[in-house]
Automatic annotation (TrEMBL):
Source taxon at top rank: Bacteria
Segments forming domain ABC-2 type transporter transmembrane: 4-212
Cellular compartment(s): Membrane
Protein name per the record: ABC transporter permease
Topology of the protein relative to the lipid bilayer: Multi-pass membrane protein
Organism name: Thermostichus vulcanus str. 'Rupite'
Length: 257
């Protein structure tokens, strides 16, 4: 598995440096979009506006959303490209399972995407004056978000294998993910509080806002629920992907578009 990951990492790096303008353009566009929203909000609120913690929370939600979008779209778009170029069947003839191949590919791509998202975060912090905390404890809630994102990515990859063209579904999912990651579900009360904890990636996003914005220590119970939720959604995505591979093989539609 390590050898597979290293091979996919090399492949992702070659593709990344082959199109440097596209990579740089993605960083600039994503940053400019947020800054345009920030300037517009300042204009509407007036010159005396002070966003305080709300700005920091919005920055966290936006950057998390950017990272999750990279992850979620990765597998589905990868499958569509492989099908269009006619190499999908060759990839699945590998000694490794389809789930292992695309998981290794996704992890390799994540290492490069994470560097891009970090650059986006640093530029946004410089432009807006936002101040965030970066304690080591943020790794665990971030891991729960990434696990949930990979689970969602494999679910969309399953749909891409069966239905082929899912561009509109990907667009719709982006708005849904923005709601999940930007909404402060950690402030919900009563029964809605437990609903917020059970939604994919929301518990981890709330913990990141607590740690990085409010400088609050990790709540052990909420962290446990966030990790369990991330693992559950990841497992669901893997099961769905393995099932969709079997169905696509049985129907003979792996190489179709």
């Amino acid at each position: 598995m390590i050898q597979l990951f290293l091979a996919e990492l090399k492949r992702s790096w070659i593709q990344y440096i082959r199109y440097p303008v596209e990579a740089l353009g993605g960083i600039l566009i994503t940053t400019f979009f947020f800054y345009a929203l920030f300037v517009g909000a300042q204009y509407v609120a007036g010159p005396a506006s002070q966003f305080g913690e709300r700005l920091d929370a919005v920055v966290i939600g936006y950057v998390l959303w950017t990272l999750v979008i990279f992850i979620v779209n990765d597998i589905a778009l990868n499958l569509q490209v492989e099908a269009q170029t006619g190499t999908l069947e060759q990839v699945l003839l590998s000694p490794f399972s389809a789930a292992s191949i695309f998981l290794a590919r996704a992890c390799a791509s994540f290492s490069l995407r994470f560097a891009s998202v970090t650059a986006i975060l640093l530029v946004i912090l410089a432009l807006t004056g936002s101040r965030l905390q970066f304690p080591p404890s943020l790794i665990l809630p971030l891991a729960s978000v990434v696990l949930g994102a990979y689970g969602f990515s494999f679910l969309l990859g399953s749909a891409a294998l069966i239905f082929k063209r899912i561009q509109q579904l990907l667009i719709i999912s982006q708005f849904g993910l923005l709601f999940l990651l930007a909404t402060p579900t950690e402030e919900w009360q009563g029964s809605l509080k437990w609903v917020g904890q059970a939604l994919p990636m929301t518990a981890g996003a709330g913990l990141l806002r607590d740690v990085m914005v409010r400088d609050v220590g990790l709540d052990g119970l909420r962290l446990l629920m966030a990790l369990i939720t991330g693992v559950v959604y990841f497992a669901l995505g893997m099961v769905a992907f393995r099932w969709s591979v079997r169905v696509a093989k049985d129907r003979g539609i792996l190489g179709s578009q």
